[in-house]
Each structure stands twice: as C-alpha cells, then as structure tokens.
Write a structure and sequence with these properties.
Blueprint (H helix, E strand, L loop, with lengths): L1 H46 L5 H23 L1
Helix pairs in contact: 1-2
InterPro entries: ATPase_put
Keywords: Membrane, Transmembrane, Transmembrane helix
Pfam families: ATPase_gene1
C-alpha cells in the first residue's frame, strides 16, 4: 500500500501540470485570434469599408494559426 500512496502525489502533480499547460494554450489561442481580429478591424476602419471582410478574413486566419500552434505544442 505504501507504493500506491507514493504514486498518487506524482499523478496529481502531472494532472496539475497538464491542466496548466492546456489552460495556457487556450489563452494563447484567444490572444492570437484577438490580435488578428483587431488588426483586421483596424484595416477595415482605416479603409472605411462598409462590410468587414478584412476582419472576417484575418479572424479566420488567426483561427488557423492558433490551431497550428496548438497542434505543434501538443505534439511535443
């Protein structure tokens, strides 16, 4: 039983590290998408566009970039 008690703290430590890692990835995704969307918004505002096509396109590009970064991080 002493062996089981020793393994539990290590397992909970790994769970906390995984939780922190994936929480950080979520905030990274939010930041990347937000930066791309803000850049698109500013371009649309400067160009005085009636339809926010650049915002939509850059937001979508931000999603793909953030997914690429998440997949690359999870692979490691």
């Amino acid at each position: 039983m002493a062996e089981n008690e020793q393994k539990q703290p290590n397992d909970s430590g790994k769970a906390v590290n995984a939780y922190a890692k994936y929480t950080g990835l979520a905030f990274q995704m939010i930041a990347v998408i937000g930066i791309f969307a803000f850049a698109g918004y500013e371009i649309d505002k400067a160009g005085q566009h009636t339809t926010m096509w650049v915002t939509a396109a850059l937001s979508l590009a931000g999603v793909f970039v953030s997914l690429y970064l998440v997949i690359r991080s999870v692979k490691n």
